[in-house]
Amino acid sequence: MADKEKYLRIQNVVKKFGDFTALKDVSLEIEEGEFICFLGPSGCGKTTLLRAIAGLDIQTSGQVFQAGRDISALPPSERDFGIVFQSYALFPNMTVSKNVAYGLENQKLEKSQIEKRVRELLETVGLPEQGEKYPAQLSGGQQQRVALARAIATSPGLLLLDEPLSALDARVRVHLRHEIKELQRRLGVTTIMVTHDQEEALTMADRIVVMNDGVIEQIGTPIDVYRKPECAFVADFVGHMNFMNGQVVESDRIQIGSQQLAAKTNGHKPGQAVQVAFRPEDLVAVEDGDMNNAISVNLKDIEFLGSFFRADLTGGDLGQSTINADFSINLSRRVNLEKGRELKIRVPADHIRLFPMEG
Amino acid sequence: MADTAFSGKSVPIKPKLSNDDWIMRGAMILIGLVLIIAIILPLYAMLSKSFEDSDGNFIGLANYVEYFSTPALFQSIYNSLSISVIATIVVLVTSFLYAYALTRTCIPFKKFFRLVAMIPLLTPSLLSGISLVYWFGNQGVAKELLFGESIYGPIGIVFGSSYWVFPHALMIVITALSIADSRLYEAADALRTSKIRTFFTVTLPGAKYGLISAGFVVFTLVFTDFGVPKVIGGNYNMLATDIYKQVIGQLNFQMGAVVSVVLLAPALLAFVLDRIVQKKQVALLSAKAVPLVPKPDAKRDMFFLGFCTLVAAVIIGMIGMAQYAALVKFWPYDLSLSLNNYNFDVMDGGGWDSFYNSIELGLWSATIGTVVIFFGAYLVQKGRGFEKGRGLFQAIAIIPLAVPGMVLGLAYIFFFNNPDNPLNFIYGTMIILVVVTITHFYTVSHLTAVTALQQMDNEFEAVSASLKAPFYKTFTRVTVPVCSPAILDISIYLFMNAMTTVSAVVFLYSSDTSLASIAVLNMDDAGDIAPAAAMAMMIAYTCLGARILHALLSRGIMKKTAAWRGR
Ligand SMILES: Nc1ncnc2c1ncn2[C@@H]1O[C@H](COP(=O)(O)OP(=O)(O)OP(=O)(O)O)[C@@H](O)[C@H]1O
Ligand SMILES: [Mg+2]
Asked: Which domain does B392 fall in, by range?
């Protein structure tokens, strides 16, 4: 290939623990300065892949190149990265300043230079006054910032974050998300963050690597992963998705329940049984009687979720199946959303995705 | 889209070792080799000796045949077993009740009772024998209480053994009983379960593993102890005293080796059984458990206060009698007090020098032992890769726990006194005493270190590597300070055991390196019982001093580091 060497290249990486294969031939390329999230359910191998990149648990086979250098077999100390763990792993017996300075001391810098850099870093992470405290005297969010400052202190080319926010409570988490993202943009450091929180991945990542069971299911921008999931797993894992069994009728028509709808069939042949997927928020309640691509359903139940309502719909064209639809507060002011009433729901053709039947 | 378009085959990777990896593995292999030399090879030498005649020819099982066809010898197996079983029952019951009182009742003076119970740890097991002589011996003050039975024999051995192993069992049972979830008791209460039934369905099962473990510990300690039967056993033969008699009395090393193997076998069995049982133990205390706070109950508390007072009185009576006897001019004819018995230099046993030797041994064992053991545990626990080597090291580090001191000491004779052994030069020096002491008490220290290290975040090493800090920097600047309480615990443990051990060193001291505990043994042997008691008390005071120093240091460290330990 003629194009320029990517910053980080992971090639056919396999990691075995005894008989168990945690990573099955994983390949991936990352651009310099990108913010990448590894997203996937617990136990899918995110941490394993991150630790292989760091050299902490070196892969059984496959290669890793960083900035054109083959680092596949190198120990962590000979690689170029900073890392933050879920547990923070701050040295408890050292002050915040000492923790941040720990890596700088190994660079043979002068004392005054180190002090200056530590001050800068603490300012960068928003803790200018806390240098003399011990980790145990800080809140979880503050500890996380110190860990971050320590990891970026030596200006590594690659920043690795393993679920850095999952030990924090919800508000702090949302706040830190923005800060980390902002910091990363400012420093321009290539960053990989492991998370099993899709919201985190969607809001922070330039590209998301969705993993499942030791393989990469999809790599794409948050919008792509959300809008154009390439497989049922991604569709199901990222965001909320309705799945129904259906059938392709014509090259641009499908059948679900007792209704036929227009949809892009992307290569699925007429007669083929498929999984039909569409998101609750893409469903539109028909208010003007226009029954184009609409189904009629019964409102079984409705749940208030703060900024919107989530409805359970069943019956009508759906028969026994149940799907969810999200209705805005606005709509609820115009339309009577009483339990048990009948509704017409449009399923926009653009938002219907088809996946092969499982098994 | 092109991201997954690689067509290359997956190349197997052989991780490159960093400098740290080389150093850590090298150091671990080195310590492992020392351990092999200090435990495996000597045991092997002893085992092979038991198949040889006195000229070193292989004679198969002949020694064992001779052993089992000499009733006087194998009678000891029965004696040792029955004494150990009886003592185990006595100690388990006593320590359970005592521990129950300390953890589950509202008696006053709990701290005092806890401290008193630890007194036996301060002295060699010999002391309990000596005390019994003064209480119930031929000229004992309370001889009548035995109704004509002699204290020299099974009664004395059971009593004396129970005294000195009591704290060992008590610590385990207290730990087991401290782990209680009050919710279980509330549930039992809510179901109107009777107190007795609650005891048998909740309390006992909860402490089951602790009791089993304590049982194995007590059994092994009594079974392999030499001090008590030596002093108070009279003509009643036990395996440990047999080894001593065969080796020191008759210079029959082969038979000594055979008896050692016979002694080692049940000790090993108990050890293996204990391991199996402990593996079965599931964590009883979930994170959500609510600690039990006992409620007052006048009748129950009265009973347990009485019981604890009785036990404490016995313990104080034992050590108090030793102290009193040490100060008395000429028992039982002249009961006026003097320090004559502390004039060790005029008696057999090595004089005051042996006391100073003991302190020297204690300090060497504590410093070198702590450094080696903690560092070894660190390498095993925090090393990167090399799982097989680390597993092997861990396994070897456990072995010393299963090997009785006498057996280890005798094995050292066979191994180090062999002129062909390049390490022969340490025989008869302080070095071999330090080596045998550290080895004998290796496992408990190692496990203490491992527990402390396990409580540390495993990612410290990963973070350090990413920051390009060499491992020894993180080790000295983070690991050691954080683990300093455990390190102190290990050093005091090694020091006290070096001061009090007899069995591990009894075959290995020379005239230049006699020890205080050996002096107690030899003076008692020579009939100088009062000076023996005096020397035993010197050991007790030294250990007490060390303990107090340890407590002060620990408190100082805790205070200094309170800021970062987060209370
Ligand atoms: N040291 C190990 N030995 C054996 N199996 C392991 C080891 N480390 C991880 N595994 C297994 O490999 C799989 C992937 O683990 P990994 O830690 O990468 O998951 P993860 O995606 O990070 O999950 P989580 O979100 O729970 O952190 C899991 O099934 C795990 O049990
Ligand atoms: Mg993980």
From this structure: 16-49+344-567
